[in-house]
Amino acid sequence: MRKTQGRVQEAASMGQDFRVGPTCWTAFARGASELIRDEWALKLAGEEGARLNARFMDDLGARFMKDVVALRTVYLDNVIQDFVQAGGKQVVILGAGMDSRAWRLQRLARASRGFTLFEVDEPVLLDMKRERLGPSVIAQPLCRRVEIPAALTCTEEWGGALVDHPNFDSSVRSLFLIEDVSMYMPEQDFRAALAKVSALSARDSIICGDWVPRITVQGKLPGATSDIIAVFGSECNSPWLYGPRNARAFSNLLKEAGFATAEQLTSRAIEREVREFLPFGMAQQKIHLSIKSRSWTSYAAWAMCTFAPARLCAGAPSDIGLRVYMATRE
């Protein structure tokens, strides 16, 4: 562990961004949420995730950000599980960080024969994940798991590694997940990543993930939200760098890369949908997550009713502009 931490500190001193703080905090947020059953999350979060949580959830009152992470995670979990149930054979997580889906998504255990989940990220983060989970857990994912150690900005490197891997086939339908990544990349690097995903995707392949708008990146949100985000980025050595102007601009960005947007949802849109469930006595019910279109809304409804019937997080701004999306290769 100390060896990995030393590499992280050395990289940070050189001005390199490995998203260590954000990915550790995201793991902590998942582990602290009753909405997500993730027995490995807090171990993956480590001391860094706990420290950031104490600083931003307790000191700055940004509890609403954990709710956003939980809902985003559930939405993307279901996109992946729908894809797997439909017979999809390969999922690629770009910026896998401390992601534990290879161990916690039960649908992966029943995937089609030959299914592979690829995790692409900085070598230092993949090393950290192995050290924190330990050899016994790493050796027992629910599906075949392949690590691709490469910086996300090195598109030719990770793209070439996927093409050269015997279990990846660019001629069959794939799913690419880009979660909690786009805002930390310069625009040209994110565009290059989309172009590489497009080049590796067969027709009807899926790309999904999240993004935040330019107004959020530029710190122009009302109240204290922008200050919280700015301090978070500073302490993590991972400031937010890029956000498209609006949903139409992001759809156009995907279209330029050859993808047709299927849907985009904001946290406020999720909140509005959840309110419809409130009169039906769902507040104390834990809804079983079925693998059907939009089934995630029922699960989100249970979480929202349980945690904050009135708002996503009472007394705090609940909209940082974040959107989740899904698009298909044309």
Automatic annotation (TrEMBL):
- GO MF entries: methyltransferase activity
Query: Known SUPFAM superfamilies for this protein?
Result: S-adenosyl-L-methionine-dependent methyltransferases
Listed under GO biological process in this entry are: methylation
Please verify whether the record's keywords include Transmembrane helix.
no
Q: Which UniProt keywords apply?
A: Methyltransferase, Transferase
Annotated InterPro entries? Ppm1/Ppm2/Tcmp, SAM-dependent_MTases_sf, SAM_mthyl_Trfase_ML2640-like
Check the record and name the Gene3D superfamilies matching this protein. Answer: Vaccinia Virus protein VP39
What is stated as this protein's family in its record?
Belongs to the UPF0677 family.
Q: Which PANTHER family match?
A: S-ADENOSYL-L-METHIONINE-DEPENDENT METHYLTRANSFERASE YKTD-RELATED, S-ADENOSYL-L-METHIONINE-DEPENDENT METHYLTRANSFERASES SUPERFAMILY PROTEIN
Name of the molecule in the record: Leucine carboxyl methyltransferase 1
In its UniProt entry, the species of origin is given as: Hondaea fermentalgiana
